[in-house]
Every structure is written in structure tokens, then in C-alpha cells.
Amino acid sequence: MLSTVTACSTSDEPKTVRVTVTQTVTAAPDEGAAPKKDGPLSFRDKTTVKSDDGTSSTAEVLAYTHTEKGPQAPGEELGGDSWATAEIRVCNTGSDRIGVSQDPWSVDYADGTSMETTGLSGGDMPKPEFPMDKSLGSAKCARGKVAFPVHADKRPVSIVYSPEGGEPVEWAVPKA
User: Fold this and answer.
1) What's the pTM value of the predicted model, to 2 decimals?
2) What is the mean pLDDT of the segment spanning 40-64?
3) I need a labelling partner for 171 at 20 to 30 A (CA). Which of 1, 34, 74, 157 fits?
4) pLDDT at 5 over 80
5) Which tens digits make up the pLDDT trace of 76-108?
6) Which residues pair with 116 in a beta bridge?
7) Which fold has domain 31-172?
């Protein structure tokens, strides 16, 4: 914006001064988009997930509990001596139905190993459980805990969501 201002002086000629006014406008952030930063997201950071089939959703990790009571210890056959849980939420942001499950979730360790969910559900597993297989309509969400067999003395560094047809997303697990 350019304005012209006329100022008075002691002489008979008016002085002209040009003034430039700049207005700064900040765009509102997209609530569904992941924060722009390098590395894993932080808990409660929501990210948009777009799949190859054109569906879209948001995903977020709400909390992590390193040792959680389950029906019994998972045992070495499942890969751990304790249960850990991640409380997660996935919401359908598109118009087509989407399927959600515990299967795309895992925990990763600093040494490069990872633990996937066992697929165990029901009974005395930590509640509320994230669904094993559920169809979500438009604007619907699923929320609950996904249980992982872990070693009580070894804490993971991240929780990873690898949906079919989408890019993997990672959230950092805070140090104890």
C-alpha cells in the first residue's frame, strides 16, 4: 500500500512525503498436518496419512506405558518378559471408508530391532484396546491401546505406524 502525505512547513511550498505500509498476514496452520520438523514426531503430534488408494486419515500416539499388566507375561516365545502399550488414535478424514487395525504398529529400538504387536486381544489385555479390524466411515475415529511384548529393562526409542499403501510415521518415546 502506498500513501502520499502532505506536510506543512514554514515556506509556501508543501512537502510531499511517501510512506509505505506493509501488512503481515500469517496463514492458519492445517490442523491435520504434521508439525514441520526433522526426526520423529512427539506424542500428541497428529499427522496426515494419505494412502495409494486415495483414502486419507490422521494418526497420533497419545501415550506410552513401558510396563503394563496383562493376563500374564508375554514370555520369550512372543519376544519379551513384559507388556508395553501405546495409546493411539486414527481418524478417517476422507469420504471413503477405511480399515484400522493394530497390525501396522510397532516399537523400534536404538539397536535397529523392532517388536510388532502380537495380535492378542480380549481377555485381560490392557484396556481400552485399539480394534483388531474395524471399518471407519467418514469423520469417524478409533482410539485405544496396542500391546507389545517388550523386555522390562530395554526401552524402545520410537513407535512406528506403517499403514498399507502409506509412508511410515514415527513418534519418539520419551526417556523414562
Assistant:
1) 0.76
2) 94
3) 74
4) no
5) 788 889 999 999 999 999 999 999 999 999 999
6) 106
7) Immunoglobulin-like (2.60.40)
